[in-house]
């Protein structure tokens, strides 16, 4: 039965790739981009491990730290994706109503949903995590069994967050009396933020960038070899992986035991807990859909207050009638999206992610500044590193707020299609309505970070211009790619933001930023340095490359909006 | 392309919609006269909804021409959409808006002036008896209430053509009566044309001035109820009997249709 339930999902997935479903180009597009990204990650990890090995005395320990950080980052990502996926797989999926009405034994339904959530939330690790471990292994010249064992290690590693998340969502739906399912998402979002923050801070990357701050070599060795926490699954993985990587079959049996037994114990505990409590939790999550919670009550109260303060319906109609202007459709599209965002708690949880990104960025930037002081990067290096990092933050924000914009029209999209509004205007409305937070955050970050290290004013202005162009260009890309890969059936913006299309957008967005920074490198550097030396000389090639670099994101944005419109049109 | 045709609001010429090897609509020719209630009937999968969706701009035809109010939809879709209102069978609308906000939004999409929008919103809220709920979020409405909001939204810009897919789904008997009365008054008093697809033969019998029966993507019969009776040989029959007679098919024909649609067996010629 379990396999039948899973097989049906695989068939549905395969159906989505059928020619008639507009999925003809999805597999090749995804494969090409994945191979490119896979190769970049492999090369990057390989290069980094190679450099680390070159550091005398602590080279091997640095590699171990690199592996440890990789596992920790993936643990953080898995915690987040599992929270989102598990909740919707167990409580919100459309087919649950049908499945629960069928004579499917409880344990089998649980196992099938568990495996589905596991697959959905963990595929990224297998696609994008393996090249990192392979790259490090190649640098260390690991034996063949290291590569084979990785699969065996990663499977229990990914199962742990899924089992914990399934129990967490079970607890939430049972404890929070008749609470809205979406409110629970907010709670989980905050919990995930806390986990992510702890994970990032546990890495203490700043100390690796600033070796001079250590009192002695002994202290460095002690920091590098210290486990992050014996309770973290990532630490167990490191203890099993490291000996294998170095050709030693004597792995830490204690860690191996923990790694294998913990997911098994957690899975059976979750299964055991789901037997009596799942039906109750599911039922409460459905009650929650119809608005019983404190947040819903508060929202309705505000709504009532707002409308009554604005006067009676009669008076509002009178005010509307006095408005001589034709009601603009673009303005109405933007106003509608804004109103829905304010009233939909599931979209607010996205803000928590934004806060997490900003805090992590600023906290870590302080340490990059130390690195610059120590001449590890140099001022120019720090400047460009900051541009790239800030660009990536903007891409991430675009993925959170602009990519899901088209999909969030959901089943109401027929209204747009049959209204006298062109799809071009519709996509423009989505871009204009959602671009402001990205532009503002981008400008705040770039000005704050550059002023913090006293970059000269011309560098600051150039960076601001570049980040502004990136925000507009990648924002348009997010809307366009969101229209190429719409998920009208998916009402959860967090899930849309971590879907297949979102991964494609993130990869393409990062590529566009790198291309832009590379092309404008000499142009920016010469102008910025000229502010102090008075020599603004630029060769014709540098000017041409600079201009092409500056318009690259805008062209990419325009093209993806165009393709998005065409794809939406073709879809119907 | 602009065509002057004062008698017909919709003209379909060789309209075709193909999904891979399956032909959902197969060279449909149809003229819908102005100011009438025109019903499209047919068994499941006959191509009714696909045809209506192409007329409203929700689907692109594979080939053929759709003329609405004298304008080709492929030449000026914004105009043809501006004179067309659509009511789908399932009322999916923005749940997080209030009924008033939803109607104001529709007014914006159709470039209505503030004065016009306000007047129509007031009229329609009263007509569909939803004034009291104007400030309530649509998510808190029942299916029937949502359907009323969708009706109000479609009628707000006073379209020349109203396309309705299964108008009675989710409506209570009172709603049924209201809609039937409304269709009559919209055509007779306001000169609007209503193009509807339905399975409720009683509704078609009661409100439609003209009926087209579609099967396998083609029109198999068209005319008033009395003309259809004559055509089917069921002179005293109800529309149900007429419909069953006209859409009757042999096992062989059915097998061929299934095989054409799903491609699992070779169709017999």
Summarize the structure.
The complex is a heterodimer of chains A (572) and B (269). With 572 residues, chain A is mainly alpha-helical.
Question: How would you describe this structure in keywords?
Answer:
heterodimer, A: 23 helices, globular, B: 269 residues, alpha/beta, Rossmann fold, 2 domains, 6-stranded mixed sheet, 4-stranded antiparallel sheet, 10 helices, disordered C terminus
Can you walk me through this structure?
The complex is a heterodimer of chains A (572) and B (269). By secondary structure, chain A is mainly α. Chain A folds into 2 domains: 30-293, no CATH class; 328-572, no CATH class. Chain A contains 23 helices and no strands. In chain B, the strands form 2 sheets. Chain B has a 6-stranded mixed sheet with strand order 6-7-8-3-9-10, sandwiched between helices. A 4-stranded antiparallel sheet of chain B has the order 2-1-4-5. The longest helix of chain B is centred in the last third of the chain and has 16 residues, at 173-188. Chain B has helices at 48-56, 77-82, 99-109, 114-127, 143-155, 173-188, 201-207, 225-232, 239-247, 251-262, and strands at 8-19, 22-33, 37-41, 63-68, 71-72, 84-87, 161-165, 193-197, 210-215, 218-223. Chain B is an alpha/beta fold and 269 residues long. Classes of the chains: A mainly alpha (572), B alpha/beta (269).
Number of strands of chain A: 0
Radius of gyration of chain B, whole Å: 19 Å
Largest interface: A-B, 46 and 50 residues
Q: What is the molecular shape of chain A?
A: globular
- In which order are the strands of the major sheet of chain B placed? 6-7-8-3-9-10
What is the strand and helix layout of this fold?
The complex is a heterodimer of chains A (572) and B (269).
Chain A (H helix, E strand, L loop, with lengths): L1 H15 L9 H28 L5 H34 L3 H6 L4 H35 L3 H32 L5 H23 L1 H5 L7 H9 L7 H13 L7 H37 L4 H16 L3 H10 L6 H15 L1 H29 L5 H23 L2 H4 L5 H6 L4 H30 L4 H28 L8 H4 L3 H34 L6 H32 L1
Helix pairs in contact in A: 1-5, 2-3, 2-5, 2-22, 3-5, 3-6, 3-7, 3-10, 5-6, 5-11, 6-10, 6-11, 7-15, 10-11, 14-19, 15-16, 16-19, 16-20, 16-22, 19-20, 19-23, 20-22, 20-23, 22-23
Chain B lengths: L7 E12 L2 E12 L3 E5 L6 H9 L6 E6 L2 E2 L4 H6 L1 E4 L11 H11 L4 H14 L15 H13 L5 E5 L7 H16 L4 E5 L3 H7 L2 E6 L2 E6 L1 H8 L6 H9 L3 H12 L7
Parallel strand pairs in B: 3-8, 3-9, 6-7, 7-8
Antiparallel strand pairs in B: 1-2, 1-4, 4-5, 9-10
Helix pairs in contact in B: 3-4, 3-5, 8-9
């Amino acid at each position: 039965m379990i396999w039948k339930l899973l097989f049906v999902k695989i068939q549905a997935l395969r159906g989505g790739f059928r020619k008639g479903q507009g999925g003809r180009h999805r597999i090749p597009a995804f494969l090409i981009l994945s191979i490119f990204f896979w190769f970049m990650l492999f090369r990057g990890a390989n290069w980094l491990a190679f450099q680390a090995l070159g550091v005398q005395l602590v080279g091997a320990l640095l590699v171990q730290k690199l592996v440890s950080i990789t596992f920790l980052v993936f643990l953080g990502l898995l915690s987040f994706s599992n929270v989102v996926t598990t909740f919707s797989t167990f409580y919100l999926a459309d087919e649950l109503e049908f499945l629960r009405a069928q004579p499917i034994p409880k344990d089998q339904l649980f196992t099938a949903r568990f495996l589905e959530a596991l697959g959905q939330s963990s595929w990224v690790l297998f696609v994008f995590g393996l090249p990192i471990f392979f790259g490090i292994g190649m640098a260390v010249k690991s034996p063949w069994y290291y590569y084979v064992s990785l699969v065996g290690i990663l499977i229990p590693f990914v199962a742990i967050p899924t089992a914990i998340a399934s129990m967490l969502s079970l607890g939430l739906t049972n404890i929070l009396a008749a609470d809205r399912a979406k409110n629970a998402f907010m709670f989980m979002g905050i919990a995930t933020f806390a986990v992510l923050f702890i994970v990032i801070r546990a890495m203490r990357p700043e100390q690796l960038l600033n070796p001079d701050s250590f009192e002695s070599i002994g202290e460095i060795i002690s920091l590098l070899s210290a486990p992050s926490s014996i309770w973290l699954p990532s630490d167990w993985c490191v203890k099993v992986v490291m000996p294998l990587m170095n050709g030693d079959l004597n792995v830490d049996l204690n860690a191996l035991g923990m790694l294998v037994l913990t997911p098994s114990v957690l899975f059976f505990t979750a299964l055991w807990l789901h037997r009596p409590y799942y039906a109750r939790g599911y039922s409460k999550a459905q009650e929650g859909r119809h608005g019983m919670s404190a947040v819903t009550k508060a929202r309705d109260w505000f709504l009532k207050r707002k409308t009554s303060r604005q006067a009676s319906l009669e008076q509002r109609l009178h005010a509307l009638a006095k408005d001589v202007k034709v009601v603009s459709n673009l303005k109405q599209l933007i106003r509608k999206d804004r109103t829905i965002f304010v009233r939909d708690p599931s979209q607010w949880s996205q803000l928590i992610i934004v806060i997490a990104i900003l805090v992590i960025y600023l906290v870590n930037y302080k340490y990059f500044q130390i690195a610059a002081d120590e001449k590890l990067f140099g001022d120019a290096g720090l400047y460009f590193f900051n541009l790239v990092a800030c660009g990536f933050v903007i891409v991430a924000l675009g993925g959170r707020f602009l990519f899901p914009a088209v999909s969030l029209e959901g089943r109401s999209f027929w209204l747009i299609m049959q209204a006298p509004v062109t799809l071009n205007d519709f996509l423009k409305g989505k871009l204009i309505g959602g671009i402001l937070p990205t532009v503002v955050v981008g400008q705040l970050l770039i000005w704050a970070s550059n002023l913090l290290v006293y970059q000269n004013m011309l560098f600051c202005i150039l960076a601001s211009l570049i980040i502004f162009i990136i925000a507009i260009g990648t924002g348009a890309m997010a809307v366009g790619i969101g229209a190429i890969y719409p998920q009208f059936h998916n009402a959860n913006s967090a899930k849309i933001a971590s879907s297949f299309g979102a991964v494609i957008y993130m990869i393409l967005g990062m590529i566009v930023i790198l291309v832009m920074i590379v092309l404008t490198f000499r142009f920016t550097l010469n102008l910025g340095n000229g502010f102090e030396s008075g020599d603004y000389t630029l060769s014709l090639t540098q000017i041409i490359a600079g201009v092409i670099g500056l318009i690259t994101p805008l062209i990419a944005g325009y093209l993806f909006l165009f393709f998005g419109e065409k794809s939406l049109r073709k879809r119907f | 392309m602009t065509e002057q045709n004062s008698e017909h609001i919709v003209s379909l010429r060789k309209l075709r919609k193909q999904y891979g090897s399956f032909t959902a609509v197969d060279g449909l020719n149809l003229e819908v006269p102005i100011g009438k209630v025109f019903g499209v009937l047919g068994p499941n999968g006959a191509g009714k909804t696909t045809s209506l969706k192409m007329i409203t701009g929700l689907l692109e035809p594979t080939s053929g021409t759709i003329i609405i109010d004298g304008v080709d939809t492929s030449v000026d879709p914004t105009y043809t959409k501006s004179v067309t209102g659509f009511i789908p069978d399932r009322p999916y609308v923005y749940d997080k808006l209030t009924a008033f906000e939803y109607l104001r939004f529709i007014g914006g999409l159709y470039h209505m002036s503030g004065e016009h929008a306000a007047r129509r919103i007031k009229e329609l809220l009263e007509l569909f008896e939803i004034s009291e709920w104007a400030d309530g979020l649509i998510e808190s409405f029942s299916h029937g209430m949502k359907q009323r909001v969708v009706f109000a939204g479609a009628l707000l810009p006073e379209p020349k053509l109203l396309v309705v897919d299964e108008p009675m789904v989710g409506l209570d008997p009172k709603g049924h009566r209201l809609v039937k009365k409304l269709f009559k008054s919209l055509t007779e008093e306001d000169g609007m044309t209503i193009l509807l697809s339905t399975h409720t033969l009683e509704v078609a019998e009661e409100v439609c001035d003209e009926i087209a029966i579609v099967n396998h993507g083609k029109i198999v019969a068209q005319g008033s109820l009395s003309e259809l009776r004559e055509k089917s040989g069921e002179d005293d029959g109800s529309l149900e009997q007429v419909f069953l007679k006209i859409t009757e098919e042999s096992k062989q024909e059915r097998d061929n249709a299934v095989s054409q649609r799903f491609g699992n067996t070779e169709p017999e010629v």
